[in-house]
Amino acid sequence: MPAYCEVALPVPLDRTFTYAVREGEQITRGARVIAPFRNEKLIGVITATEATAPTDFEAKYLEAVLDDEPLLSEHLLTLAEWIAGYYLAPLGEVLRGMLPLMAEVRRVVYYRITDFGRDKLAGSIDGDGEAAASRASRKRSEKAGPNEEKFSLERRVLERLASGEPVNVSTLRTATSASLPVLAAMLRKKWIVRETAASERDARRTERFAVLVPDTRLPNLTKLQQAILAELAANGGELPLAELRRRELPSSTLQTLVRRELIRIEERPAVFRLGGIESPAAPLTLNESQFDALASIVSHFGAFHTFLLHGVTGSGKTAVYLKAMQRALDRGQSAILLVPEIGLTPQMVGLLDAAFGQRVALLHSALTPEERTEQWRRIHRGDAPIVVGTRSAIFAPAPNLGLILVDEEHDQSYKQEETPRYNARDVAVMRAKLTGAVVVLGSATPSLESWQNSVQGKYTRIEMNDRVKNRPLPEVELIDMRREFQETGQEQLFSRSLVDQTRESLDRGEQAIILLNRRGYSFAVICRACGQKLECQNCAIALTHHKPSSEDQIARAGQRLECHYCGFKRIVPSKCPNCESEHLYYLGAGSQQGEERLTEIFPGARIGRMDRDTVRGRHDLEHLLARLHSGEINLLVGTQMIAKGHDIHGVTLVGVVGCDHALSMPDFRAAERVFQLMTQVSGRAGRGELPGRVVVQTYYPDHYAIIAASTHDYASFAERELKYRRWMHYPPFGVLANILIQSEKLEETAGWSAEIGKWFQSTAPEGIRVLGPCTAPIARIKNVYRFHIILKAASRKSLNAALRGALVHADEAGIPRRNIIVDVDAQRLM
């Protein structure tokens, strides 16, 4: 009799699957396997090795067992089970996020024709296909319409698959010119089926080097050949080929030198480079508050304990992190440092590289699959006991984990916005509890949930109220934009005070930063005649107006409208699509328009812009920040990216423009987010020897969040905001979840949400308050309609029971699980 095991697969089903194990195969809990599932071959994780034989079906055999030893420790498996239970996420999808090792598996997608496809192909050739035959007899010069073109592509696909043999996707697309959307449409019509195969592959990265051949007599050489040899000689006799290409030295010339045996090519294991901005090691001495903070943290090593490190901006929290990690290393323990977005913190990476060198591993989504696999393996082997990364780094397989640090713990980037929808900050606390580690949550503006936990004594609060070297916090000036309009009679993007103070700072040779927290040139385009707003064709959201980046393309035809949700783009029309009026109005200003206005006001300034349009990857940001650190840029404008973690000592002035628009958003966290953003960006000023100043433009100068941020008074803000939260039973005085129901058909979405809403009205446990169902604030994204139901409860136990009951009812009502998203502790209600 074969043995059986339970396997968690990355599918949207809340269960594991039973598989048979072939004789001689060794299985262990926590190891990866390749398992057949429908027409797919999926990578799963064994969760139980002594499963019983199923009685109602015949279990399939595992395709392959990939690991002799478990890749996930027992505490990580327990953590995965906790995440699956707490966030109501399928266990297989949680485990997939814990194992970023897809580079070790080669997956090939195949397509095969179905009986429906054969019928369609036969009908297009004879019998029922007279219309198709007459169409084929038309003159080839006649231009085919979109439907004819699509049918022609589909027919070519069916003809290519007619033999019945599966064809891999790349071969099929090359042979037929069919796009992936065409194949997806044929799948929906059931003319073809999709299959996958999976097998192991070697994911080790290699790098090719050009190496000088020693003691070689040099013949006559061209100037380019001499240049290559000179470059190699100047760099110790060798250089990576990629580096030679970056220096624009021709590969054909290099091959000539190889043939003449003056250079040889060697392939070596690739060396991963952290990157980041080069920084000196952290100072050896700490001030009194830093030393006290470090002593408190270190005194609890060896047992679970949670600290909230509340330090004002510039108080030296990073130095405490580095010293604490060094103490963990001295004890033979490993440490994990989480940062909100790795692309926004190259300075942190530079500090870690200077302090710990090759003992540091980096984990984040911008790495290639091969790089992530390499870093994960280094951590698993114990070669890199210091781990830094974004939220997924909390799952790093660090052995003997002693310390977890969560920098900027308030940042909403720690909340994953796709399944599993975990919050890395809370997962960090649970992982520390399971492993007996110390966890430190650091921020100048802690989340109110963490603050309240420190008030109740669940977390130990450490205060760092002074900046390093007793530097003063920046003075903040509030500019009432209502009065500004009354006095000037014009709607200006930048106030007179901000312009004057920016000019004074630049004239003194100092640097300035201006926060304009909107991408693009204008928020929206509206027709003045009919009021129609130009919206995305896929999403119920206004398109953002962008100008071309090239200065010589300023004609309307070079401009574009872009959706920041699905990426849809179109040119700016000359007339309103609804009424054909030419009177189009561009509403609001984004960072791109801010850069243009600043260029007009300060023609001699060296201006840079930091937003998602100028910073596509971490290397772009590193280059931009290096220019800022060196003084090449003296005026920087950008979105909230400029507010996080940057330590530029030359910045003495910070301007805040349009930050308070979020106060009008239908979100109970709006005031908290405005306070946090204002405080964080204000903290970029005055971090060097010169004092800083902040100018805040606002239409709500009397709002308590604005006033508290202007006086750097977190305690008063927290007291006022917590009073409101307590009245309304919002977190941290209640728990909240958002159920999102979605479908490509509006009728389905409305019907399914009504069905779940009725269940809550009749069956939901006592103490659950149900808001909805109703259309989500953004009713359609990527052609998917969205309704939501918000649940508020006093206890997590009752909320969890209600959510589980709703999912069981939805399953019984025939609502597919993939069309329901449950977001526990939701950060966004959009």
From TrEMBL:
It catalyses: ATP + H2O = ADP + phosphate + H(+); Couples ATP hydrolysis with the unwinding of duplex DNA by translocating in the 3'-5' direction. Its cofactor is Zn(2+). Residues 298-464 form the Helicase ATP-binding domain. GO terms for molecular function: 3'-5' DNA helicase activity; ATP binding; DNA binding; hydrolase activity; zinc ion binding. It comes from the Bacteria. GO terms for cellular component: primosome complex. Zn(2+) 2 binds at C536, C539, C563, C566. InterPro entries: DEAD/DEAH_box_helicase_dom (IPR011545), Helicase_ATP-bd (IPR014001), Helicase_C-like (IPR001650), P-loop_NTPase (IPR027417), PriA (IPR005259), PriA_3primeBD (IPR041222), PriA_3primeBD_sf (IPR042115), PriA_C (IPR041236). Keywords: ATP-binding, DNA replication, DNA-binding, Helicase, Hydrolase, Isomerase, Metal-binding, Nucleotide-binding, Primosome, Zinc. Its EC number is 5.6.2.4. Initiates the restart of stalled replication forks, which reloads the replicative helicase on sites other than the origin of replication. Recognizes and binds to abandoned replication forks and remodels them to uncover a helicase loading site. Promotes assembly of the primosome at these replication forks. Belongs to the helicase family. PriA subfamily. This is Replication restart protein PriA. The gene is priA.
